[in-house]
User: Which sequence fits this backbone?
């Protein structure tokens, strides 16, 4: 499975080592209003984006619609969920208590 990680300033890295996920999330402390989030996009076009406001959004950017979110998400939980998405384990992500919309 292949995936892209987008850092807050826009740089994308393909198949970034999972040990670096925490580093990417911690870099949000430096983010500005123009670039307030980081994201992991799986080859199936499913994306988990995480913002400075601790909001995690799960959506399929190819098919649109169906965006879901979690509020006040701990960075450790994001690392875990990014790992599931990197592995293509959508079922594990679906088990979260998602709210509809952004």
Assistant:
């Amino acid at each position: 499975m292949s995936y892209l990680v987008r850092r807050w300033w826009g740089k994308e890295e393909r198949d970034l080592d999972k040990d670096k996920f925490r580093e990417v999330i911690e870099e949000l402390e430096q983010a500005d209003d123009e670039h307030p989030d980081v994201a992991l996009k799986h080859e199936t076009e499913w994306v988990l984006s995480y913002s400075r406001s601790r909001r995690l959004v799960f959506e399929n950017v190819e098919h649109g619609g169906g965006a879901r979110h979690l509020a006040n998400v701990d960075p450790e939980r994001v690392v875990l969920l990014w790992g599931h998405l990197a592995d293509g384990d959508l079922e594990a992500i679906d088990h979260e208590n998602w709210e509809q919309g952004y």
Q: What stands out?
A: The helical segments are 21-26, 75-86, 90-94. The mean pLDDT is 95.
